[in-house]
Amino acid sequence: MINGTFTPSADAGKLSTAPHLNNPSTPISVRFSNSTGLPNIPDNDPNADPRGMAIRFHLGPRRHTDVIGHSTPFFPVRTGAEFLAFFQAIASSPPGGPSPSPVEQFLGSHPSALAFVQAPKPAPSSYAREAYFGLNAFKLIDAHGNATTIRYRMVPGLGVESLDSEGLKEKNVDYLQKEIETRLQKGPVTFRLMAEIAEVGDITDDVTVHWPDTRSLMELGSVSLETIVKDQVKEQKYIIFDPIPRVEGVEPSDDPILEFRAAVYLISGRERRSAP
Ligand code: HEM
Predict the structure, then answer these.
(1) Which residues line ligand 1 (CB under 6 A)?
(2) 186-218 pLDDT tens trace
(3) What are the C-alpha distances in Å from 97 to residues 79, 89, 104, 181, 236?
(4) What is the pTM of this model?
(5) Phi then psi for 65, rounded to 5 degrees?
(6) Which of 4, 54, 101, 109 has the fewest Cβ atoms within 10 angstroms?
(7) What number of other Cβ atoms are within 10 A of residue 222's Cβ?
(8) Among 55, 82, 261, which is best to mutate for testing ligand 1, by the most ligand atoms less than 8 A from CB?
(9) Mean pLDDT throughout 33-43?
(10) Counts for the chain of helices (H) and strands (E), in that order
C-alpha cells in the first residue's frame, strides 16, 4: 500500500459537495492488486490481469470514502447471482473434461462474460503505467441537490505501457511490487481521477454496458502517490475497501452489484483479518 495526496480540480466542487472534492487536499492510501483474489498470485502470472487500483480518501477520524477500479472497461456479469454462477461453472470445468464444459456453456449464453474473457488484458510494465476503470455508476450531488451520473477512471500521468506475453515471461514474480517501490524512491507518481459523464438515456445500473466513447471526461483531481506504507503486512491485512461511497455529495447508482459487492468485500476482509 502507498500513501499519497489527492488534490481536486477547480471544477470538481461544482459537481459535488463531497469533502475530498472541495478541500484543498486529502490524504489517501492506495492499494494496487492482481486479479483473481488469490493473495499470492505472482505478478507475472498470465491470469493476474486485470490489475486493480483502490483509493481510500481519509476524511477525518474513522471517516473515509473509496474509489475502486480495475484495468479493463469490461466486466463479465451484471449481478452477484450471475457472478456466482460464473465461478461455479469455472470450478466445475477442469482441463481435459467433456466439451462443451460448464464454463463454455456459460460463456455461450452470457455475451458480456465472453466479451470480458476475450478483451485483451495485457500486463502493464508498471502499476503506474496502467489505466483503471471504476465501472459502476455513481451520482455526484452538487450544493443545489442536482445529480451528475458518472463512472470513475484513473488515468496514469506517465501513460499506459503494456508488455507482450514474451515480455511478461522475462519478468519476476514480484516485478510490479518491486518496480513501484523503486519508482517511488525517485519521486511521486501521478494519476488523473476522471469522471466519464453520462448523458440522458445511458444505462447506469449495469456494469457490463459500455457508454459511447463520445461521453465527456472531466478531471476531478490529481492523485499523487508518494511513499510506501510502513508496516505493510499489517495494513494490507486490515484494510477493507468499500464499493459504496458513504459520504455526502456522492451517492451510489441503482446498480444491483454495488450492495452485493459491499457485503462480499466485508466478508472477505473479515476473513482476512481473522486469518492467522
Ligand atoms: C458481483 C460483483 C463483485 C464481486 C462478488 C467482487 C468480489 C470481490 C472481493 C471478495 C474482493 C476482495 C475484497 C477484500 O478482501 O477486501 C474484491 C476486490 C476487488 N474488486 Fe471486486 N467484486 C465484484 C465486482 C467488481 C467490479 C465491478 C470491479 C471493477 C472495478 C471490481 C474490482 C475489484 C478490485 C480492484 C478489488 C481489489 C480491491 C482491494 O485492493 O482491496 N470488483 N472483489
Answers:
(1) 31, 33, 37, 52, 54, 68-70, 75, 80, 83, 134-136, 207, 240-241, 257, 260-261, 264-265, 268-269, 272
(2) 999 999 999 999 999 999 999 999 999 999 999
(3) 28, 12, 11, 42, 38
(4) 0.96
(5) -145, 150
(6) 109
(7) 18
(8) 261
(9) 92
(10) 8, 9
